[in-house]
Structures are given as C-alpha cells and as structure tokens.
Description:
Helices cover 36% and strands 14% of the residues. By secondary structure, the chain is of the alpha/beta class. It has two domains: 5-100 and 293-325, NAD(P)-binding Rossmann-like Domain (Rossmann fold), CATH 3.40.50.720; 102-284, Rossmann fold. The strands form two sheets. It has a seven-stranded parallel β-sheet, sandwiched between helices. It has a five-stranded parallel β-sheet with strand order 2-1-3-4-5. The protein is globular. Bound molecules: 2-keto-D-gluconic acid. The site of 2-keto-D-gluconic acid has 8 residues, from loops.
Amino acid sequence: MSKPKVLVARAIFPETIDRLAQHFEVESNQADEAWSKAQLIGKLQGKVGVFTTGSERIDAELLDACPDLKICANMAVGYNNFDTDAMTAHGVLGTNAPDVLTETTADFGFALLMATARRIAESEHFLRAGKWQKWAYDMFSGSDIHGSTLGIIGMGRIGQGIAKRGAHGFGMKVIYHNRSRLDAALEAECKASYVGKEELLKTADHVVLVVPYTPASHHTIGAAEIALMKPTATLINIARGGIVDDAALAVALRERRIAAAGLDVFEGEPKVHPDLLTVPNVVLTPHIASATVPTRKAMADLAVDNLVGYLVNGKPLTPVNPAVLAPK
Ligand code: 8YV
C-alpha cells in the first residue's frame, strides 16, 4: 500500500525527515528554497499533511487550492500564520508546538532583558569599534534588574516562566496584565500581582511582551502606550511582530522617551524597520528565542508526533482548532 504524502515546507533536522519517512512519502525542502504561495500550493497537490514553521501562511486561498490537505502541523507555539476559521471551514486541522519551548523561551526573554537594561550589545559594539580609550564613571550605565518592577503583558506559560525567574532569581516585584487573571495558586507560584494595562505601563521598570498575535493584540504597544512608560524603562518584545508599532518605538527610542528596547520579533520580519537599525539603544535579535538545539528538536518532534498522531492514529496531540475533530 502506498504511504500518505506529506510536505515539509522548510529545511529541518535530517532526523525529522527520517521520522516522517517511516510513515509517509515525504517531499522536503532541505535546500530551504523560498517558495512563493503559488509554488507552495503546487507542492501541496496530493499531500495530506504539511509540516510548517511560522512563515507559511495557510489561508482560504491556499486551502481552496489544496483539496487533499488534512493537517498543517506548525513547529511553533504561535500559529498566527494559520487562518483557523478558514481551516476549520475546510475541515483542515492545525496543530502547534506548545510547552516544549516554554523554559528556553523564558530564558531568552530574561537574557534579552538583561542585555537591554545593562546595555550589553551597545557597549560591545563600542568596544569592537575600538572606541574604548579610558574608563568613565558613567560609561554605559544602565538600569538595575534586581529589586526592580517587572511588568509582564501576556501571562501564559512563557510569561509565567519569566515571572518566576524575575521574582525568585532576582527579587523583582512582578506585576502582570492578561486577558484573564491567573488563579490564586498560580499567582502565588509566580509571586505576581494582576494590574490593569495602564498601571503596568506606568509603574514597571521593565515591560516584557509575551502575548499571542491576533487582530485584537495588534499594536498593543504604540506611541500612546510608550508615553505612559517611565523614561528609564525598558521594553522587551519576544511575542510577535505587530504587537509593537515598530515605527513609533524607533521614534521613542531616538527621543529617549524610554531608555531602551530589546526586540526578537519585528513587523514584516525578516525585514526590520530601518529606523530601528540606526538607534543605539535597542538590542535586535533575529527571532531566536526558542533557538537551542534540544528545544528546536523537541518542537520538530512534536510537529511530527502531530502528523503521525492524526494521519496514522487519528489522535493529534496539540490541535488548535479541535472543532475539526468533532464527530459530524
Ligand atoms: C519559532 C516562535 O521558532 O514558537 C513560536 O511561536 O515564535 C518560535 O519559537 C518560529 O515561529 C518558527 O517556527
């Protein structure tokens, strides 16, 4: 009997392809070619499953053109590349890769916060450029992490990981804002207090964004929100491009309305707003918050488990539109 056909849209660990090949006829993209939407649609003909990363947009146009498709397995916890309503309407399941990246991503959020507040990247560029001629009392003075107030917007699993690191490791006072309040036991575990968004922006020394991207969270932070922040504050975005108005942030950084920002995600990435590239008080990284080898392997494994789970055993592990699974 011939095996079901699946497509892997981006280059991935060879062992991921090997695992898939045990169950499926696999077409891969180990050359990591940039496929246009039309090319992706062409490759998906006859495929029942696709292994995606956050970069492939799965929408009604693609689904209309790919009638064989049954499942899109994202190697990412975020799935704003999926039009889940259109997928559900087409009977196509989406899965994501939660949990396996929580601690790694929280580590990175904290690293970016430290690098930003303590001006690590900016001072390293200064040193590499041969500008370090003498010590000075105020050279690259930043702001403290320990004992300061950490404001987290988006208190899901990654937000909670950052809260615990701040409260337990650095004695920070942690405040958070979220669509819904955590239960008392979780708040106690994270040593975090719930506040309104405005209060958070006004009182936090460091604001970390960890909300999923949806039309409602678009520009959660724009000029008006930045204006509420302390002039000494830092802003960290490890969530998604589009959560911050990057153009407004660049202006605020240039005018020193806040002290600094650390960004791992960008509107329209991999393009970066040109004004962000020219302001010194921002740390820029290319969407690497989950990038450790064990975590990326675990994310790829979970995407494979979802493809096998659904297409072979009828039981996906982490569906994002479970309505597709409901008995008709
Ligand atoms: C991924 C991420 O590496 O999981 C997510 O939502 O943002 C990252 O961990 C990226 O989306 C590529 O799949």
